[in-house]
């Protein structure tokens, strides 16, 4: 918790108004010596005098005490990425306690609370044991409940609902997801194209193009995400699975998703390799794992959100994200996971006798830092 800085504020405000300590003392009904002690930090004003002091200087109590319950976007980003680095390098309990202290200090800063939820979700796997895991889940759900009941920013509330649904999926409660989000998909109107057309009619073609690019990019990433889900759902239908994989790879060839959003293709190849193993197609699985390795080694790092020659107007949009264009976890954590996904996956254990598989795994370890 930040120290109370009332003495400096009292000096600053008195000098702004060109008043003497005696002027303040007369208004407050105290001695000049008392005012002097307040300003030198020798003592604090009695609590019942604080509202009168704030009124005298025409400031809020928070301003008088030097306390700001909210943080800027940049401050939130700095806190998030610092804690993400800590999770990668320090004991989980220590970092979790740091998170708890920050949450308590800024309990009414809802943008921060939302990012703390994301931070805990992204590092949930590091909890290490059932007790810690449950503690993380409980903290996340408490924060989401507070955001939904107290926050007046609709966009933050909507994000909190989606995150709550993710938590229920993570913890094996699909019925809670349906209860939260509903049973059916309701068609919704997309305002993005309307905004783009409006800028076009105003003659601002650059802004219209930028918004349209962002919309295309978002829809493309949504399409890849939904096709990944469909890929996994067809674990019982090899023909549809392979057709879906083929179409995903055509999308990748057309839009270079492996460079635009390499994590999407990492997930595609990881899922496809597991499914090929379930279909007893180990040779095909190894070929897919090689593609996974190529993206992980060649395309993923440095891991930042960015456009390309075609999507050449979206970088500014990324920079305005709550966490900026940086990844939500540290590079070390991501690299460790990329190796472990292949090295420890039960479905790939039978591939350990394959020299080609071992070569791929060794390339991953060497290039991603596990020497």
TrEMBL record:
Gene3D superfamilies: lambda repressor-like DNA-binding domains (1.10.260.40), Tetratricopeptide repeat domain (1.25.40.10). One of its GO terms (molecular function) is DNA binding. The keyword rRNA-binding does not apply. The keyword DNA-binding applies. InterPro entries: Cro/C1-type_HTH, Lambda_DNA-bd_dom_sf, TPR-like_helical_dom_sf. Residues 10-64 form the HTH cro/C1-type domain. Pfam families: HTH_3. It comes from Anaerofustis stercorihominis DSM 17244. This is DNA-binding helix-turn-helix protein. Keywords: DNA-binding.
